[in-house]
Specification:
Number of domains: 1
Low-confidence stretches: none
CATH class: Mainly Alpha
Number of helices: 4
């Protein structure tokens, strides 16, 4: 995936990558929220891209989902 154009695009990209990691682990929003100490509503707002994840959020998610934080971020490819 190419680096995104706007902050909103980045928010949506990161949310999609978190959802994909959840799907690979077959974990629900509620189970993930409980595991990292958030409410389901806090997580849901971020998963739909309404509110961006912050670095601390991604660190908690990566640790629980056993993926590097960088896996949630777009990679700039050489043109």
């Amino acid at each position: 995936m190419q680096l995104t154009e706007s902050p909103r695009d980045l928010t949506r990209y990161v949310a999609a990558e978190v959802r994909a990691a959840m799907a690979r682990r077959q974990i629900s929003q509620q189970a993930l929220a409980d595991a990292v100490g958030w409410t389901q509503a806090y997580l849901a707002r971020r998963l739909v891209g309404r509110v961006p994840f912050d670095v601390s959020d991604l660190e908690k998610l990566g640790e629980f989902l056993d993926v590097p934080v960088t896996s949630f971020l777009p990679v700039k490819r050489a043109s």
